[in-house]
Amino acid sequence: MRENALLRLGKRRIGVKEIASQAWCEKQMELYALYGKEMTMQMQKGMQRHSEKQAEYFVELEAKPVTYPDRLYKDAYENRVSMRTLNEKGECSELKIWGSINGYGISGKIDAIKLCEGKARIVEYKTKKDAKGAMLGESDSVQARIYKKLLAELKNGDFSYPNFSKMYGLGDMRISESFRNELAGLGIEEGERSLDSIYKAMFDQMHMLPEIDEKLEVIYLERENLSELARYMIDYNGEELVERLKDYMEFWNGGREARPVPEKEKWKCNWCTFFNKKCFVWAG
Questions:
Q1: Is the pTM of the predicted complex or chain greater than 0.90?
Q2: Out of 6, 98, 122, 262, which residue is the most buried by the measure of CB atoms under 10 Å away?
C-alpha cells in the first residue's frame, strides 16, 4: 500500500476540480499538485473572462480577510448573499460547497445556479478559443456531476454543520479583531460576527434550497467576448458517478500510482507542460 496521496502531496482536502481532472489525465493532476500549474497567457485570459461572467450575479464581501478564519467567514457570508440572490433573481454565481467522499474532505465552487421550473440547476461555464474546442469534455461533465452530488447532500443534511465544523476545526477558530471591526462597520449584526453563527445560518439556508435538478448544464464561451459557443445538457447518473469515484479515490487512498493517459489518448500529451520534462511515459 502506497502512502495516502493527501499526505504525500501535502494537502488537507481534495478539490472537486482535482478529482474531475483525473478524467483527463491523473498523472498530470498529480504533477500539478507537486509542482504547480504554469499559467499561460491563454489560461490567464480565460480566468479573467470567467471572473467577468461571474460578476453578473456575485456580490463580494467588502471586508478584507487577514487570517484563515477570516477567509472562512467570507466564504460563508458570500454564500448567504448568493443564496438570497438565487431566490430573488432566479440565478446566483460562485457558490462554495463542501462535502466528504471516502472520509476525505472535498471542496469546490459552483460557477452558477439558476432556477428552472422550481428546481436549482447547476451551470458550469468554460472558456475556449473557438468553436473547435467547445466539445463536451469528460472532466467538465464529471465536475458538474460531483457538484450536483455535493450540493444535494448539503441540502438534504447528509453533510451538515457538525460535519463541517469537525472537518475544519471551527470550534477553535476566531476571526481577527480588525476583520470583526470591519464587519461591524458594514452593519453586520453582532450575532453574525462569528464563524459559528455565520456557518450555522449558512447551512440552514442550504437546507432550504429548492430541489437540486437532475439536469446539469455545461456552457462553453468564446474567450475574447464571452459569446456562447456551445451548450450541453447532462443527465445526472448517481450510480455511475459513485462507481467512478470509487476508482478515483483508489489513487487518493494510496491503492495505486497515478495513471497516465492510455496509448490511444497520448495525443493529450501535446498540451501538457510536463511532457518530456517530468513525465516520459509516451516520450520518444
A1: yes
A2: 122
In a domain, 177, yes or no: yes
Name every residue whose Cβ is closer than 8 Å to that of residue 179 and which is 6 or more positions away in sequence.
Answer: 63, 64, 65, 66, 67, 70, 73
d(CA 119, CA 174): 36
d(CA 122, CA 54): 14
Taking only the tens place, the pLDDT of each residue in 72-87 is 999 999 999 999 999 9
Query: Residue 187: inside a domain, yes or no?
Result: yes
Q: State how many domains the chain has.
A: 1
Looking at residue 284, its pLDDT comes to 65
| 270 to 21, 35, 45, 229: CA distances (angstroms) | 16, 19, 21, 24
Residue 58 has pLDDT above 80, yes or no: no
Instruction: List the domain range (segments joined by +) for residue 96.
Output: 41-248
The pLDDT of residue 77: 96
Over the stretch 208-266, which tens digit does the pLDDT of each residue have? 999 999 999 999 998 888 889 999 999 999 999 999 999 999 999 999 999 999 999 99
The separation between CA 139 and the C-alpha centre of its own chain, rounded to angstroms, equals 13
Assigned domain for 222 exists: yes
Task: Decide if 4 is inside a domain.
Answer: no
CA distance 60 to 38: 27
Distance of CA 148 to the CA centre of its chain: 11
**Alpha-carbon torsion (62, 67, 68, 69), positive or negative:** negative
Cβ-proximal residues to 30 (8 Å cutoff; 6+ apart), any chain: 5, 9, 251, 258
- Burial level of 99, CB count in 10 A (0-12/13-18/19+)? buried
Q: Coil, strand or helix: which one is 147?
A: helix
